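Re: that chain you flagged

S.,

Sorry for the slow reply, it's been a week of failed gels. I finally had a moment to sit down with the sequence you sent. For the record, here it is as I used it:
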Amino acid sequence: MMGKMTEKQKRFCEEYLIDLNATQAAIRARYSKKTARQTANENLTKPYIKEYIDQRLEEIQNEKIADQQEVLQYYTSVLRSEELEEHAFTVTDKEFDEDGGMSMSERIETIKLEPKIRDRNKAAEMIGKRYAMWTDKQQVENITPTFVEDVPDED
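Prediction finished late last night. Pasting the structure tokens below so you have them in one place:
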């Protein structure tokens, strides 16, 4: 079905995905400025173009949002200290010249540190919650219900 799309139509789709402005997408895809609005509307009503745009929008959405597997992998990397935290700090250098004058310069350096124990514990807790590792189990007694007949007899 998507084989019907021309290169110009595909370019229109990609331009449309930038800002969802169909007329501007048609102009950027090199359709005539005079008929850009009409061409854009026609393009958006074609099923194979709509299908392509919908698929690309879904791909873009999926790239932006972490799925369950990605979140679990991140927590696991924190738990195992594979994910490092970057810390920046300022270093001040003092230099003395021959006349006894002093000059100072500053630079920013960064270091990478393993996650703190509390962060690793939180990652372990979140993974544990996912797998219901710490659900409270309550002992339920086997109670036999007692039925009371409190419905009056019909007269």
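What I noticed first: The two ends are 76 Å apart (CA to CA).

Talk soon,
D.
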